[in-house]
């Protein structure tokens, strides 16, 4: 993708403690992503550039809503392209575990990879019908067992490791993806919240700050997702994936990959 990016990379930790007696070093927090520019700003995003808050969210919803919808079965072949391992064209890269696995091992058995809905299907009960249930912008390949461990949990920090975790963690009510894809997860969740606003027969999906959302059309934890968006900026894999989905499959983009600073501008 032809684009000029001015990107804020991960925050640098304070190297020294305060030297004056009675003073403590300030707590570190993630800072908003720096503004970016893309080749699509004068065309695809022209009605969104310069807006903030609900006006920006509404403009982006209008922009990204027209899309080509895939069937659930078509996702198998699409994921073999969108998530191809850049170091091995015969494999896909699994989201949470980071494992590179043969494209041919797709299915529902142990040792296979399957179709993970990052926005859990039960959070709005949209199933696998064409629409949110088949939207490539939030569906990724994952090990069958790891997918089951994640289940429909909301996202948050904390938990324990598990087999093939790749650094991801889980506890009774939340899931923390490995560091390398924390921002990816955040931007996928927030894409869904902009794309599906309840005006096309599907639930109005929204982020909130809870980890007990169950079957309601909400996903959390928003404060943590915002932090992950700042700490893990889009990388080449995520940008390529966005471009392939736009060019080859759905004809729409995830705006938070192109403009990660729009997360803070809206929420």
Automatic annotation (TrEMBL):
Name used for this protein in its record: Ribonuclease
Alphabetic keyword roster: Hydrolase, Nuclease, Signal
GO MF terms held by the record: hydrolase activity; nuclease activity
SUPFAM superfamilies: His-Me finger endonucleases
InterPro entries: Endonuclease-I, His-Me_finger_sf
Keyword RNA-binding recorded: no
Pfam families for this protein: Endonuclease_1
Bias (Low complexity): 157-168
PANTHER family attached to this UniProt entry: ENDONUCLEASE-1 (PTHR33607)
Disordered: region residues: 155-175
Annotated source species: Streptomyces aurantiogriseus
First and last residue of the signal peptide: 1-29
Top-rank lineage group of the source organism: Bacteria
